[in-house]
Amino acid sequence: MAPITRMAAFGRGAIPTSAGLRVGLGRVVSVLFTLLGLLALTFFIGRLLPADPVLAVTGPEVTKATYDRVYLELGLDRSVWQQFLGYIGGVLQGDLGRSTTTGQPVMQDLMRAFPATLELSLAAAIVGSAVGIPLGIAAAVNRGSWIDHIARIIGLAGYSIPIFWMGLMGLFLFYAKLHWVGPSGRVDIFYEGMVPPVTGMMMVDAAIAGDWTVFRSAFAHLILPASVLGYYSTAYISRMTRSFMLEQMTQEYVIAARAKGLSRSAVIWRHAFKNIRVQLLTVVALVFGGLLDGTVLIETVFGWPGVGQYLTRGLQFNDINVVMSTVLMIGVLFLTINVVSDWLYRRLDPRTR
Amino acid sequence: MSVCDTTTPKRPRWRAWLETDTPQSVRQASLQETWRKVLYFRSQPLGMIGLALLLLLLFVVVFAPLLATHNPIAQDLDARLLPPSAQYWLGTDHLGRDVYSRIVYGARTTLRIAVLVAIIVAPLGLVIGATAGYLGGIVDEILMRITDVFLAFPGLILALGFAAALGPGVDNAIIAIALTAWPPIARLARAEALTIRQADYIAAVRLQGASAARIIVRHVMPVCLPSVTVRVTLNMAGVILTAAGLGFLGLGAQPPWPEWGAMVAVGRQFMFDYPWVVAAPGLAIAAISLAFNLLGDALRDTLDPRIG
Amino acid sequence: MSEPRLLQLQDLRVSFHSRDGVVDAVRGVSFSLGREKLGIVGESGSGKSMTGRALMRLLPSTATMHAKTMRFGEIDLLAASERQMCQVRGRHIAMIMQDPKYSLNPVVTVGKQITETYRRHRRTGGRAARDYAIEMLDAVKIRDPARVFHQYPHEISGGMGQRVMIAMMLAAEPSLLIADEPTSALDVTVRFEILQLLDELIQSRHLGVLFISHDLNLVRRYCDRVLIMYAGQVVEEIEADRLNEATHPYTRGLLDSMPRIHRPRHRLPVLQRDPAWREPLTADER
Ligand SMILES: Nc1ncnc2c1ncn2[C@@H]1O[C@H](COP(=O)(O)OP(=O)(O)O)[C@@H](O)[C@H]1O
Ligand SMILES: [Mg+2]
User: Fold this and answer.
1) Full-prediction pTM beyond 0.80?
2) Closest listed ligand to the CA of C233
3) C-alpha–C-alpha distance, residues B293 and B291, integer Å
């Protein structure tokens, strides 16, 4: 999906090599600025854009008493600046308001939903790296061969087919027709709540509890959404791997390695691949962030009770507070992943270490 | 589609003029360069397929009333969920509407979104990027910070937020998508503006006393325009998919108007028994974004031979 | 000249096919080489590097090459399989490239890059290879080789990098060395040291050398014999100490446009290029 086109655009390009204290401080300040920007943007969208922010929160049918209460809760009697400060203060204390649909604090809902999303994204990122990296390398070193064409077709399909549609078609084929995988949800309904939640990730919890029936059921439910999401990460990862590898293969050091008499596979793995490992790590991190985008749609398709489904439920019931809080959370998550991958890059590359 | 038929004796004059080895003027030389690119583009079959698909889309949009076999919003409850047949080429949906005709009319929604987003995003990105790049300093810093903030959200998520706040509907979806699609364009325009800021002819214009605004509009933006145009085309597939995603989540065109993403969403609950309701609109979305991707790849190869 | 020739090359042609047409980078180069120092001089783009790389069959994938003969000793380099070429490269023919900043792998330690060559051709264990690599570092006059062994290329200077490059390429004791502008990327101050080091190693190891450079002065001092290349062809082949007798106008032009201490001039003449030099040479001109 679109995730992926945007990701490469993030980050300010070349990283200075002298990672002195000032550079570090500058980065922190810059991240804080972006964070403040995220808050400003969600505040703007949630409170200022709707014609009546109260109705946006409560929905159209509302008693006068509730209306007035929410009006005061949102601080609409105060100036915009005070409202914004109040909003930031709330967010910093972990207070994102209440959901009108669940009646729970949004923060609490999000925390409950997050492990499901994490489990799904992790599985997808694993699928994407396990397939995408070898595919990209094979495509680059056999440029123009059938494997390159396959990689290209996989990429094109991944960039063209709507993810929600592929999810639905997958359900139709593998669940309804072939009965290979489970239907929507995370486990079969009668296993729900059978294992004590430790991490919140169903398969991990089942493994911890040693309950392999639940584990198998959870796996049968996870495999399809994770594969569909994983397909999209494969498309992106293989494309990036291919272009990184192509770039390396024309470098002088590759010619030098060949001039020493090294075999093709030694040149590829011990020399060229070694040079893209760090880049790949950040790509996988970014894919992880980019998956957040597809996750919203895939969770909706598969009834996966994660952050994405929470968001679309909020949309359905006009719960702007839920929507904007989730958007904010995903933005913060995305930013964090970007910062971490940037940091990893500089930590791990011997040239910038 | 052979490129190398330059030996054919009966070449039209204009072609000979374009292909001669000894151009007589700068203008001829630059037109020749363009012509070589056109020829190269034409030699890429995938790019031509993409172009053909988009022309087909245009054709469908223009002649929708002639191509449709039924009224796209007329319900016929006696003809619900019928499989594809001679009468209903792609079957009917749960309200007995002809899926084929809905897809034909849905093309209008898709093209409208694509065109309007492009029309909003290109100037928006161009103005922001060119201003930031040309003025530099604090203005650049502020504008790029704002760009970073927008880039800090995954695309669909932010569009979702905007669309939710603005309320459902195609126009709001267009605004929402445009508001999230401008940052990469602005970055590109900024990079271009940075390189021409130092150019002598810009300095000359400045010495003549032109204001910054005038220089940006008259001299910087036109230079950025070609690459911005290409980039907008490249990003169109993403725009189509985001639009389909919004439609799928109920934030696009409102019923009964046909929109491909929404058609998939509505067909979901009948999918297991009546798969055509979902299959056809999804394929339509995939075909159009594939077309933009193929066209974009070919354009990129044509304009930037280094990337392979 | 009584010794058997190391390398025989006849009518080498290298061309690139791109979407804008065909570029002939090398157009019929022939020479043979014993255990001597043969220089190739020519301006940038004249096809020197492609000639060197063709000898090792290391041309870019977009290039195509043809030759009538290309032999290294008993080995027919044209007929050899890629596997066989892997045994020739490094073991029999090695190549020193221009800029250690790019030709050393930035994320592999110096020691690893040297042991790799050795272990590839002499199947030995890690310890022996390590000791040998340190010996090699010592042989190229690197102080504190044990420390440098563990360093990454970006942690050492350009001159040191080129020493490492030499150590890496000579580790498997090849008999022919192609040195493609080995000092052009270096600081003037270290150029001489590197050349001297190379010379010592060539003497002590009894190597044949193909020395590629754009610097005629350097080549005439350094080599026994010189090939002058222009636009993909060898326009003149001559003993280095008889260069003054060169006849080809391009060579003469090169000689004339060099500053001399004994014959000061106000302005150096600009080399005039004659399009006729680009024409294919006739059989007896070769
Ligand atoms: N990768 C390539 N693609 C196309 N042409 C090339 C490539 N590499 C070299 N050439 C062509 O080959 C010619 C000779 O290059 P080269 O041997 O590197 O020159 P030199 O080493 O003498 O400076 C160049 O003029 C260039 O036109
Ligand atoms: Mg060269």
Assistant:
1) yes
2) 1
3) 5
